[in-house]
Structure formats: structure tokens, C-alpha cells
């Protein structure tokens, strides 16, 4: 009788163990919280072809630029026709600056913003924000005058105006230029402004621009654009 009792107790114990084992192997869905990784948008600026210029670095930059960029002719395509300019090698910094800005397409879509008939037409600025952005990208700098090369402000002379800032040394504003349209020249400007080239073709276009109606600030009533500036042979 005891034997039967112990056998029953033994089988009962095995049955309980079996149930506990089955409970342990039942798979459970485990919820693993994955941390969301938020990727920040990184703006990678393209490598600059040239350093951002300032008045301290500009002279060294253009001195080196002059060694590798010997072009000296630029064609301006304007709303009134084309103007071809020969740049003087003697004024190397101003020539290099003009070639550099031409290759950077700075002059494209700038305007003849100051026009005085029988005197000058002045260009290289604009009331468009795009021009301001171009200047900011290139850098803020001035060029020293180079007025003792023997060039005169004859008709067709291409010269560089002084900056509008407090400027007792008449440092040149590198983004702008003027062409003497006055018959007989404007020689009272000699010695104050750097002549760095001359118009070799297209003075009839300059005359057309000079003849337009302007407001009290000498800005043409209808904007006159330089549509394209390019290096020519």
C-alpha cells in the first residue's frame, strides 16, 4: 500500500515539474525600445577657388594672380551693344583685379549706374541683392592708387573710382569702373584716379549710354545692364 502511495506521489511530482518546464519555454515578446537617432542636416560648403579677400590680403593675392593670368582684353555686352577694353599691364594689380572679377562673373547683370553726358559713364554696381551677395562672397577690399604710369584721362580711358568710405588716400573701389566719354578727355582727373585700360572698340556704344535720360542722382531712368563680361583674345 505504501509502495502504491509513493508511486502516486512520485508521478504527481513529475507532472508538476513538467508543467513548470513548459511555462519556462513559452516565448515572450520582448519590447526593445530603440533610441531614435536624429541626423542633423550638415551643410557642406564647396571648397573655395580663392580665399575671401580683404584689404590686407588683396595685394598679395593679385600679385600672385598676375603671374598666372596674363589676359588683358575684356568684352562687355551691354543693352546698347558691345564694348571692348584693353587693360594695361603696367597697372598689374588693377588689371588682375578686373580679369579676376570678369572670370568670377561679377560684372554680369551689374549696371551703368552713373551716367553724365559729355563726361563719364560709370558701371559695376546694381540695386539688385545678387550683386551685394557676389561682393560678400568675393570679399571687402580696396586697391591703392597707381597713378604715375603716364596714362591720361583721355576719351575712352577706363579708370577706377575711389571708395565712398572715408578715404583720404583715394583707395580704389575694385568692383566699379568708369569710362571717360568727354570729348577732349577729362584731364582734371589725372593723378587722382587709376587709369588701367582703354576702350578699343565700342565708343559709339558708350556715347549711346551717355545720352540716356537720368534722374537727379545721374542714374539712368531705365536700367542699363552689362549682360555679360568675358575675356577675349
Automatic annotation (TrEMBL):
<dbReference type="InterPro" id="IPR002130">
    <property type="entry name" value="Cyclophilin-type_PPIase_dom"/>
</dbReference>
<dbReference type="InterPro" id="IPR029000">
    <property type="entry name" value="Cyclophilin-like_dom_sf"/>
</dbReference>
<keyword id="KW-0697">Rotamase</keyword>
<feature type="domain" description="PPIase cyclophilin-type">
    <location>
        <begin position="81"/>
        <end position="231"/>
    </location>
</feature>
<keyword id="KW-0413">Isomerase</keyword>
<protein>
    <recommendedName>
        <fullName>Peptidyl-prolyl cis-trans isomerase</fullName>
        <ecNumber>5.2.1.8</ecNumber>
    </recommendedName>
</protein>
<comment type="function">
    <text>PPIases accelerate the folding of proteins. It catalyzes the cis-trans isomerization of proline imidic peptide bonds in oligopeptides.</text>
</comment>
<dbReference type="GO" id="GO:0016853">
    <property type="term" value="F:isomerase activity"/>
</dbReference>
<dbReference type="InterPro" id="IPR044666">
    <property type="entry name" value="Cyclophilin_A-like"/>
</dbReference>
<dbReference type="Pfam" id="PF00160">
    <property type="entry name" value="Pro_isomerase"/>
</dbReference>
<comment type="similarity">
    <text>Belongs to the cyclophilin-type PPIase family.</text>
</comment>
Amino acid at each position: 500500500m505504501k509502495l502504491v502511495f509513493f508511486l502516486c506521489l512520485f508521478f504527481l511530482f513529475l507532472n508538476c515539474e513538467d508543467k513548470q518546464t513548459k511555462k519556462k519555454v513559452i516565448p515572450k515578446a520582448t519590447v526593445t525600445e530603440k533610441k531614435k537617432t536624429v541626423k542633423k542636416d550638415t551643410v557642406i560648403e564647396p571648397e573655395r577657388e580663392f580665399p575671401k579677400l580683404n584689404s590686407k590680403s588683396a595685394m598679395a593675392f593679385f600679385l600672385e594672380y598676375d603671374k598666372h593670368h596674363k589676359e588683358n582684353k575684356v568684352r562687355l555686352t551691354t543693352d546698347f551693344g558691345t564694348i571692348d577694353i584693353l587693360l594695361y599691364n603696367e597697372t598689374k594689380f588693377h588689371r588682375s583685379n578686373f580679369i579676376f572679377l570678369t572670370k568670377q562673373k561679377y560684372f554680369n547683370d551689374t549696371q551703368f549706374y552713373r551716367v553724365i553726358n559729355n563726361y563719364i559713364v560709370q558701371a559695376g554696381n546694381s540695386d539688385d541683392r545678387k550683386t551685394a551677395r557676389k561682393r560678400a562672397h568675393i570679399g571687402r577690399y580696396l586697391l591703392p592708387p597707381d597713378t604715375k604710369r603716364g596714362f591720361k584721362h583721355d576719351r575712352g580711358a577706363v579708370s577706377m573710382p575711389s571708395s565712398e568710405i572715408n578715404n583720404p588716400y583715394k583707395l580704389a573701389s575694385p568692383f566699379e569702373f568708369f569710362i571717360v566719354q568727354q570729348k577732349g578727355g577729362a584731364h582734371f582727373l589725372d593723378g587722382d584716379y587709376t587709369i588701367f585700360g582703354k576702350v578699343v572698340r565700342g565708343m559709339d556704344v558708350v556715347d549711346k549710354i551717355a545720352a540716356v535720360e537720368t534722374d537727379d542722382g545721374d542714374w539712368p531712368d531705365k536700367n542699363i545692364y552689362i549682360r555679360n563680361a568675358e575675356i577675349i583674345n
